[in-house]
Amino acid sequence: MKSEFHLTKTENDYLNSSMNKVSRSFALVTPCFEAPLNDYMSAAYLICRVVDNIEDCGHALDWKRLRYSEFNRLLSEPAKAREILAAWETKDWPGLTNNEKQMMTVEGGLPLWQIYLQIPQEARSIIHRWSSIMAKGMQDAEDPLCTPLFIEHSGIKLLEKTSDYNDYCYYVAGTVGHMTTELIISHYGLTEEKAQMLTDLCEACGRGLQKTNIVKDFKNDLERGFCFLPDEWMQDAMYSPLSLAGAPWTWKQKVLKDVLSELHEFISYIIALPYEATGYRVASLLCVLPAFQTMLKAARNQEKLFTPEHQIKISKLTFYRCIRDARSMAGSNEAIVRYRLEAERQIEKALSVGRSAISMGSEEDPNRICTT
């Protein structure tokens, strides 16, 4: 993707500052990309955050429909951003943080759309297409006449079926897998065969990360009145997770293994990436390695899952080790496969021994997932 796209220092500072305000972890990922792909990815991520802000806002669906419509207008006519943002900043945005609200104002949001307007047409059309699909899926998720379908049980909104769970994860994250994949196919000029291989695998990248977050954030989501694990799974656990009363061991294993199947495919996606896509390989590993570590911690702390003590966020030390490992492994598919095999072995061992898994050591145990 050849272009004369260059941002000013002020525009670069805006992207860096905004990324750090809404996602410090992804702010570490985008610098891995070669220019101008790093700026495309940062702008695309922030645009997806605007969609998230509409979804997360505490207003009714009719109100949100208007905002989704205005968002689509922003994608099509970014030159009209000042007008739309000026209207948005007069509205109440309950449920959003101050940084998230700032993105919906002229001061905090206009630079994003001005950057988006400068992005070359090919890349901008990719961002437009997939972020609009994301917005449509989020809107449909709140519409009782559409899928994915949410239902209510004991005052908690939860997805109804396994298919709704997978559809929801596709709309909110699988679409990002498609977006980033199309951007890198264009940027690196990949062959049609390689492009098709990556396209076939890319949805699992987003779904795997989304499902990891759904397990990690289960307790916090409940406090907001949501559960993103499907009702048909909850029936198998007699709905005990919804009251943080725990769940059968086999049920917990089913939840974690479903995530692992997506992460397994994510690794297959990375292995399919050409070595010359160095920055994107590092960035992809920076996303998936913390997910594997999160699943390992969950497996080693099964007795606390779906209880008041549900807390499986990895430490900063573990995260920084993931950064080191991602950089060291990016140039070797053999090392990446070894990591996946060792991760799956340790997680399977923890799952198989249940309570005694805790005796394996602390979460920062030297026997953490090994790499090279």
Task: Describe the protein in words.
- This protein is an all-alpha fold and 372 residues long.
- The chain has two domains: 9-146, Farnesyl Diphosphate Synthase; 151-372, Farnesyl Diphosphate Synthase (Orthogonal Bundle), CATH 1.10.600.
- The protein contains 16 helices and three strands.
- The chain has helices spanning 9-22, 24-27, 37-56, 61-76, 81-88, 98-102, 106-118, 121-141, 162-188, 192-216, 218-223, 231-236, 249-272, 278-300, 316-329, 333-353, and strands spanning 150-153, 156-159, 226-227.
- Strands 1-2-3 form a three-stranded mixed β-sheet.
- Helix 4 runs antiparallel to helix 8 (121-141).
- The radius of gyration is 21 Å and the shape is globular.
- The two termini are 34 Å apart.
Give the topology.
Blueprint: H1 9-22, H2 24-27, H3 37-56, H4 61-76, H5 81-88, H6 98-102, H7 106-118, H8 121-141, E1 150-153, E2 156-159, H9 162-188, H10 192-216, H11 218-223, E3 226-227, H12 231-236, H13 249-272, H14 278-300, H15 316-329, H16 333-353
Parallel strand pairs: 2-3
Antiparallel strand pairs: 1-2
CATH class annotation of the largest domain? Mainly Alpha
Q: Quickly give the CATH architecture of the largest domain.
A: Orthogonal Bundle
Low-confidence stretches: 357-367
CATH H-level homologous superfamily name of the largest domain: Farnesyl Diphosphate Synthase
Estimate the global geometry from the Cα principal axes.
globular
Compute the number of helices. 16
**Beta-strand proportion:** under 5%
Q: What is the strand arrangement across the widest sheet? A: 1-2-3
The share of residues in helices is 55-70%
List SSEs in N-to-C order: HHHHHHHHEEHHHEHHHHH
What structural class do helix, strand and pairing data support? mainly alpha
Count of structural domains:
2
- Quick check: average pLDDT? 93
Instruction: Please name the CATH topology of the largest domain.
Output: Farnesyl Diphosphate Synthase
**Number of beta-strand segments:** 3
Radius of gyration, CA atoms, in whole angstroms = 21 Å
Biggest sheet features? 3 strands, mixed
Distance N to C terminus: 34 Å
